[in-house]
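2024-03-11 09:14:02 INFO worker-7 job=invfold-0412 stage=load source=structure_tokens
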């Protein structure tokens, strides 16, 4: 791999580098285990003296190549692939924070992340408080406590479609010696590299654009490298881990202590690694990611403009529209000003009229999914967010009439025609 390869080249070439006579395509190592000729070889692997494979809960050759591809595309030093985006969010924090610690997060996060933070991590003794996306630098700093261990944000919030002001959170986190974690699922590394804007850890639900074909649920955590874990706040990184023969992660793995610790503690003990077959499919999906994201973004902008002038549409939210409040941040942080493929809109007549329009769609499918090649719609108020009251929906940035449209890579005229006939039905 060449150091200066650009994102389109990395998407195709990074990760798997076959040797002489090897298969050209990344092989699927659908094997739980690996054969060795002598006991010492396996002992050395267990002792982390050598790198290699012995059991697919911890590492697998197919998964390893997928991890290397995403790490390269995000310009990170290492990555750990997991069975879902939820696992990636959970492990990115559990690797840093423990019972009694606090984490600061953005209130516009994906609903599943908010649920994880306010229910399950809370039960584990990790307290998470939220700041609103309009918080100033001073307000973010004021929300940081002596026991805060990380700041967690989402680069392009699903489904609120708010672009994070990276500089505020990076500056506030670093002024307090904390890592900034960024869920970069919606822009993908094609549109945005959070490490360029101060992030220290990036997470993804690879289920979305990275796989891109709706075949595989998966997640990944990527480490930038170079974060100072030695400031005294993170003893688990700098003191011997007795569960692993006294390993000191910052001393023994100075390049990627976060990733090694995550793998040998959390993946060893809780499991939930990415399955090899899902890594195989996601690795292939990733090869066309730059092409797909370009088309998703072009189509979404065109559809947003179309919906905006439609007589039966009351409002449209797409950060790629020049009059959208997020537009300036899209120009600043996202490559070529592209804003990815998801937009939200409301139908005149509210929730009931929106449901009628959705039922009348032919090309666009009603699915609990976003970010694959097919155009899909979801009505959060009656689907993903149906446990919430109307006032809770508003607080989550989800109005009762909000329809989330994930614009696919079909011909945009066909997508517009389908929406038009459904809105008139
Ligand atoms: C879908 C999603 C997740 C959760 O990922 P799963 O793969 O469904 O577990 C996390 N963050 C964002 C932004 C998402 O869109």
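2024-03-11 09:14:09 INFO worker-7 stage=emit residues=425
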């Amino acid at each position: 791999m060449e150091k200066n390869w650009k994102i389109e080249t990395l998407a195709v070439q990074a990760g798997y580098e076959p040797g002489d006579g090897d298969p050209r395509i990344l092989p699927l190592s659908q094997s739980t285990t690996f054969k060795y000729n002598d006991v010492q070889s396996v002992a050395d692997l267990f002792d982390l003296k050598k790198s290699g494979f012995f059991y697919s809960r911890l590492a697998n050759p197919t998964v390893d190549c997928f991890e290397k591809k995403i790490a390269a595309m995000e310009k990170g030093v290492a990555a750990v692939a997991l069975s879902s985006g939820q696992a990636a969010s959970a492990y990115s924090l559990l690797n840093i924070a423990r019972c009694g610690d606090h984490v600061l997060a953005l209130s516009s996060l994906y609903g599943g992340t908010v649920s994880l933070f306010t229910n399950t991590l809370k039960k584990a003794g990790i307290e998470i408080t939220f700041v609103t996306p309009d918080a100033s630098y001073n307000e973010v700093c004021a929300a940081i406590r002596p026991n805060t261990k990380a700041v967690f944000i989402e680069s392009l919030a699903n489904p609120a479609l708010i672009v994070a002001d990276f500089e505020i959170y990076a500056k506030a986190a670093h002024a307090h010696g904390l890592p900034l974690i960024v869920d970069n699922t919606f822009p993908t590394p094609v549109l945005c590299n959070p490490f360029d804007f101060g992030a220290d850890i990036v997470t993804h639900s690879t289920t979305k654009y990275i796989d891109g074909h709706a075949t595989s649920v998966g997640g990944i955590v990527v480490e930038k490298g170079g974060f100072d874990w030695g400031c005294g706040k993170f003893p688990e990184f700098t003191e011997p881990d007795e569960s692993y023969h006294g390993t000191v992660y910052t001393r023994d793995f100075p390049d990627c202590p976060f990733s090694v610790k995550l793998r040998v503690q959390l993946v060893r003990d809780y499991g939930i690694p990415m399955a090899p077959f899902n890594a195989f499919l996601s690795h292939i999906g990733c090869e066309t990611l730059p092409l797909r994201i370009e088309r998703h973004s072009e189509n979404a902008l065109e559809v947003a403009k179309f919906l905006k002038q439609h007589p039966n549409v009351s409002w449209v939210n797409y950060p790629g529209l020049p009059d959208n409040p997020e537009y300036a941040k899209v120009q600043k942080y996202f490559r070529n000003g592209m804003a990815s493929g998801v937009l939200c809109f409301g139908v005149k007549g509210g929730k009931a009229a929106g449901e009628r329009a959705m039922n009348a769609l032919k090309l666009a499918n009603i699915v609990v999914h976003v970010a694959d090649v097919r155009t899909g719609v979801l009505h959060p108020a009656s689907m993903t967010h149906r446990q919430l009251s109307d006032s809770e929906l508003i607080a989550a940035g989800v109005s009762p009439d909000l329809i989330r449209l994930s614009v696919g890579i079909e011909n945009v005229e066909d997508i517009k025609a389908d929406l038009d006939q459904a809105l008139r039905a």
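2024-03-11 09:14:09 INFO worker-7 stage=report msg="The CA atoms of residues 148 and 266 lie 20 Å apart."
2024-03-11 09:14:10 INFO worker-7 job finished
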